[in-house]
Structures are given as structure tokens and as C-alpha cells.
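Priority: low. Protein: DedA family protein. Input follows.
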Amino acid sequence: MRKLYDWTLRMADHHNALWVLALVSFAEASFFPIPPDLLMIPMIIARPSRAWLIAGVAMAASVLGGLLGYAIGALAYETLGEPILMAMGKGEAMEAFNDRFVDAGFWAVLGAGITPFPYKVITIMAGWTGMSLVTFMITSVIARGLRFFIVAGLLWHFGAPIRGFIEKRLGLVLTLFFIALLGGFLLIRYL
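Result:
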């Protein structure tokens, strides 16, 4: 895993870094273990003027990769999806998770797309449970857009000093943001 992590960081300086970012973002949404943020951070610090382009590439490729995850869940769960989830230690809980996922669909995709929860688990589950493809796509664009554009915005505005914060605490901040967002919707609905 360390070699894969080191390779990802080395690719941030490569002349084809945007293509590598697109590939990593695409793959991470369905099977790859390394998040695209690890490429985005050094890329944006090196060239802040490209922050929005970098975030846009990561978002678009991640959403397209989410379609592959969806297809794996819908068309090849037993042969591909289940082994991927088992390798991540998520396979045993899939049956129980299935019932909760069907009820939470939109929120599950939004939460996984924003927070550090492995997005690939949700993309595969969305296909496996037969979630509406339209709902899945809209939610994926919102979630992945929020995640990558928040990172880009922080780096564009604060530069290198925010790097340590993003690498160590952004997952927590985005998780708290998602909880607050969900809480706000629940308040509006029940008040």
C-alpha cells in the first residue's frame, strides 16, 4: 500500500498529471484504494491558478468512475462487487446494510461522496440495490463536486499552509458538514 501511495504522490509532478488525476479519480470510485485528494493537493499547491480545473477533472472522472461502480453492483455483484467489498472488510455487513441503504439512498451517496467513507462501497451498493440511476448521478455530482471543490477552494485561498489541515482533518470537517446538512434538512422537514 505504501508503494501505491508513493506512486500517487510522484504522479502529481508528472507532465500528464491531469490525466493521472482523472484515472485515479475514476478508479477510486469503483475499486482503487487511494483517494484522488492525494494528487489534487500537491497539484493545486504547485499551480493554484488551475485549482478549479483540477477539481473539475477530479469530479467528472469520479462521477464517471461511479458509473462503473454502479455497473459492477448491478451487473456483476457476485463476481466483482462482492470480492471488492470483502477485500475492504465490508462484505459481511452487506445484507444488513442493504436494507438501510435502500431507505437512505440519496443520503448514503451524498454522505459517502463527501466524507472519507469509501465512495466505491456506495457506488457498488447503489447498483446492487437498484437505486435510480438518475438519483445516483445527481447525488454523485453534488457530493463529489462539494468534496473536490472545497479542497480546491481551501488550497487556492490559503495555499500550502492549509495542506496539513486538509490531509489530517478534512475528512472530519466534511463529515461534520454532512451531519449538519442532514440535521438541517431534518429540522426543516419536522418543524
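The chain has one domain: 2-190. The mean pLDDT is 80.
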